[in-house]
Amino acid sequence: MPRPTGAIVDHYELLEHLADGAQAEVHRAKDLLSGREVVIKFPHANVLANPVLAARWRRQAALTKALDHRSLQRRLDVDDRHGEPYMVL
User: Fold this and answer.
1) Phi, psi values for residue 68, rounded to 5°
2) Would you say 25 and 41 are in contact if contact means Cβ atoms under 8 Å apart?
3) Which of 66, 62, 69, 67 is CA-nearest to residue 85?
4) So what's the pLDDT on residue 35?
């Protein structure tokens, strides 16, 4: 079940549920500090429960930080809110 529209995650307000992929739930959100729109990915519980998939999620978070190209989505933030990780793009 997707997180509800209007929910606040740290300083992000969830505006719209965009997709549920195989590994993550994706939302359009507003950064309440900067006012800009972002995309937030929350990994599914089964990803976090599986050591191989959890390690893949952490590698993806680390690798996306190093990427900087105009044709690629830029990672803005990675956090772990009360044991619930998310990635902001």
Assistant:
1) -150, 95
2) yes
3) 62
4) 94
Rounded to whole angstroms, the Cα distance separating 52 from 68 reads 26
3-state secondary structure of 44: coil
The model carries a pTM of 0.80
Question: 């359009």: which residue's tokens?
Answer: 28
Model confidence pLDDT, tens digit, residues 8-20: 988 899 999 999 9
Backbone angles phi, psi at 85, to 5 degrees: -70, 155
**Token representation of residue 6:** 């209007």
Q: Residue 13 in contact with residue 27, Cβ under 8 Å? A: no
- Per residue in 27-74, pLDDT (tens digit) is 999 999 999 999 899 999 999 899 999 898 888 877 777 666 565 555
